[in-house]
């Protein structure tokens, strides 16, 4: 298999295995346990995203980094990980007191081990990525997630509650470390350069600021929900978003991995680039709009069948967040255009705006409950999306009116499908079951495809049919 296929497999297989394990564990554990773990993982993710990923980026960006560059970056990561772990270990009681979650200190101290494990393996991951050895990365993901998940399932079955999730995370990180060291031909040596060390440190300082913004943008909701509403509410909210995020990653990952190289190839030909941008955005909406609106309609069935009745409170969260999920999927193309046209400054400003608005919105609305928080998140997503589109369209000399005209029809057809499915749900499909769910999905697909073929111009009809035929032929392979 090619590197690109292994790269997609790495992402999709990891997501699929993680999701299956989450479903099984969710039937054994309670929302407050998941909420407690979410808070503890915020601490480890902070160091991974803002420090280790930044240092790795300083190496990967180079066209031909030397072994000395890798050595310097490795020791920089590892040296930082030790005091980071120590600080987290000693401030964990303060975090527990601040968040008002009994037992959080022990959970944070245990998961803090992941900081050291990440510091000792992140540069190995960067080496494999830079040399496009995605098969090894895919092997790492599949084996580590599977083994860690099995450990978590066993301990949960034995009644270890939150510690089963902690063990799952630590085992996953440990197996990942072992495989990365095993599969990476380069091994760290005490051959470092002061110049290389300084270059990595200086560059990573600037990347860290951007990564910190991304971290705040992605995780501010969990923090505020846990602080104001408690770990159980955070667990419910995370479950509602998790299914939506998994679907988004699965649907968008393959498209996103080819978009930046495809756009970059025609970066100097505005006419060709603009046509590819519009075409890829259109086809993505054709797939994701009905998928996410369908998920919103079927949220109750999916939650009961996959997670169980104790997670029923997450249904409304899933419905609200998934209703605008396709906006996130097509938004990735706007980011790719900005990078392809060498305007990362626009993306940086957008990311900063997203983070600030996220924090403000969640701080204001979280005290009014989970539904208000999810609504605020969705409204913010829709309100800010035109800015992202404008940044991309301005670089391509595309009028916003043309963009909206091209993408409006699939969204309208998906909304019509959703309305009919809601009516059928209320009047004919009130029994929850796997057979009923599959039937609803088939009916929804037929309704959506019928509206699309009925309302689309002739040229678009054939393109849509070819798209779904290609998807069907790949699934049949």
UniProtKB/TrEMBL annotation:
Chief location: membrane
PANTHER family named among the record's database cross-references: LIPOPOLYSACCHARIDE BIOSYNTHESIS PROTEIN WZXC, PST FAMILY PREDICTED COLANIC ACID TRANSPORTER
Keyword Plastid: no
Protein name, per record: Lipopolysaccharide biosynthesis protein
Protein origin, superkingdom: Bacteria
Species classification: Bacteria, Pseudomonadati, Pseudomonadota, Gammaproteobacteria, Enterobacterales
Family the UniProt entry places it in: Belongs to the polysaccharide synthase family.
CDD domains tied to this protein: MATE_tuaB_like
Keyword Transmembrane attached: yes
């Amino acid at each position: 298999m090619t590197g690109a296929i292994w790269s997609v497999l790495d992402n999709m297989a990891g997501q699929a295995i993680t999701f299956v394990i989450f479903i099984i564990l969710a039937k054994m554990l309670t929302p407050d346990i998941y909420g407690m773990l979410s808070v503890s993982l915020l601490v480890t993710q902070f160091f991974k995203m803002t420090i280790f990923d930044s240092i790795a980026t300083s190496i990967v960006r180079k066209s031909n980094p030397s072994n000395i560059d890798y050595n310097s970056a490795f020791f920089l990561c590892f040296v930082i990980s030790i005091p980071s772990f120590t600080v987290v270990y000693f401030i964990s009681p303060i975090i527990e007191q601040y968040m008002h979650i009994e037992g959080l200190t022990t959970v944070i101290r245990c998961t803090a081990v992941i900081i050291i494990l990440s510091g000792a393996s992140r540069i190995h991951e960067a080496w494999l990525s830079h040399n496009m050895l995605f098969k090894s990365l895919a092997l790492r993901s599949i084996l580590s997630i599977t083994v860690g998940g099995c450990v978590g399932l066993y301990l949960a079955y034995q009644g270890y509650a939150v510690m089963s999730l902690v063990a799952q995370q630590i085992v996953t990180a440990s197996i990942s470390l072992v495989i990365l060291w095993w599969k990476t031909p380069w091994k760290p040596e005490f051959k470092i350069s002061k110049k290389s060390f300084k270059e990595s440190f200086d560059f990573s300082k600037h990347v860290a600021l951007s990564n910190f913004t991304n971290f705040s943008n992605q995780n501010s909701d969990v923090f505020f929900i846990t602080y104001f509403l408690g770990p159980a509410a955070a667990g419910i909210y995370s479950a509602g978003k998790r299914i939506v995020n998994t679907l988004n990653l699965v649907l968008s990952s393959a498209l996103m991995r080819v978009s930046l190289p495809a756009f970059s190839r025609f970066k100097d030909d505005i006419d060709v680039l603009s046509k590819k941008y519009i075409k890829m955005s259109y086809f993505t909406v054709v797939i994701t709009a009905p998928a996410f609106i369908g998920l919103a309609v079927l949220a109750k069935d999916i939650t009961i069948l996959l997670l169980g009745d104790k997670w029923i409170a997450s249904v409304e969260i899933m419905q609200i967040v998934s209703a605008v999920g396709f906006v996130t999927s097509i938004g990735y193309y706007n980011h790719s255009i900005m990078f392809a046209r060498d305007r990362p400054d626009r993306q940086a400003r957008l990311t900063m705006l997203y983070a600030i608005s996220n924090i403000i919105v969640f701080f204001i609305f979280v005290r009014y409950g989970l539904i208000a928080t999810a609504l605020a998140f969705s409204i913010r997503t829709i309100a800010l999306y035109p800015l992202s589109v404008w940044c991309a369209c301005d670089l391509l000399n595309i009028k916003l009116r043309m963009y909206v005209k091209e993408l409006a029809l699939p969204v309208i057809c998906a909304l019509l499908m959703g309305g009919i499915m809601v009516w059928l749900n209320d009047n004919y499909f009130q029994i929850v079951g796997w057979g009923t769910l599959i039937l609803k999905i088939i009916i929804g697909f037929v309704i959506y495809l019928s509206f699309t073929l009925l309302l689309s111009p002739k040229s678009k009809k054939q393109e849509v049919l070819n798209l779904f035929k290609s998807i069907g032929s790949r699934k049949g392979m």
